[in-house]
# Entry
Amino acid sequence: MSGFRQRLTSVILLTIATAGLWLVLGAVPALVFYSVALLLLVVHHLRYLAALDQWLQTPAPAAATLPDATGAWGDVFARLARLMRSQSQSQQQLSTALERLRRATSAMPEGVVILDETDRIEWCNPVAEQHFGIDYNRDTGQQITYLVRQPQFAEYLATRNYSEPLIARQSRQQELILSLQLIPYGNKQKLLISRDITRLERVETMRRDFVANVSHELRTPLTVIGGFLETLSDENQTGSKIGKRALTLMTDQTMRMQRLVEDLLALSRLENAQNPVREETVNVAEMLRELYHEAQSLSAGRHHINLKLDTDAQLRGSSDELRSAFSNLVSNAVRYTTDGGEIILNWGIHDGQGLFSVQDSGIGIEPEHLPRLTERFYRVDRSRSRETGGTGLGLAIVKHVLSRHQAHLEIVSEPGKGSRFSAWFPANRLILPQGE
# Structure
């Protein structure tokens, strides 16, 4: 405001001087003086405006030196100099922080790729260059799908469901197995994190092979033992009570071990990457009617079981695998629902997705147990699981089957009020009947 007052004062003084000349020399000399003075003032400002314009077009290093000026223009240039110094300091701090971030991400054992909203590469670290066979200087601005030519990765990118990582074998390096995770952030940007899990996968493959081989080798002796125990039980009708009880217990435990072996083998088949899903047309309504009758037989009249079929839609997938998953959910509801309780089996379509749910009025599950229910051998109540004959693998099998069908399991439960297990299937797995 002081600069404005100073310039206003100069104009007022010039006007007063012109008025004095008018009185002394007359109008013409006074107006000539006033015009020349204003012209000089305009030339003065134009000269500094030209200097400012030339300075603004000067490259950054040379622009550090501001034009010399006095008066109001000197104040303007002084303020510009302060702003320049402040901006230079901020830019230097940002550059330092960015360089530190780049060094940190370059030192990470994981690959990092920054993608824009159209999935083009903005930046990547050296580990990502090794994982994907890309070059930062050459491939910046390229579509990531042009360089990572894997249908499963393109599908993962397109579905925009990044809750679970994608396990991919790098086609350029057959021995390299990567875990890929997309993380949205900022203005529609994404971070692509890649981890080398080749060693972990080898260990996991060894574990799966070991479990599968041991389970397979146990199957035959258990079958033989079970057969002989059944024969001995039939022939020992007049034996002692202790002998009968011993045979009964041995038979029950042998059957339990056989179920455990069968479940372990089923899990091994589901986890085998070389065992793709057999694509069939699955009549879900017909399958659920069969499971409904099996549930009634298992319940033996102890529960009220209802079947609700809200749609005749079918599923695309493996009939055997889906039957195994649905059967596990239904049998669990029967086992863990007290006598007189209600069990509802439902198949319908909600929000464009297929939904199979099993709801019961059973004992319910505490909230802290829900995240771990699908882990192998995890039991909420070990003594009750042994009484009901569970192997602790049923929900693990369900999770793997649903994952192979791009579906997911949702569990809602409240102690004392029952549970609801819901299997959600994506729209591309649904086969809708005519007119629906």
About this structure: The radius of gyration is 39 Å. DSSP finds 13 helices and 13 strands in the chain. The longest helix spans residues 198-235.
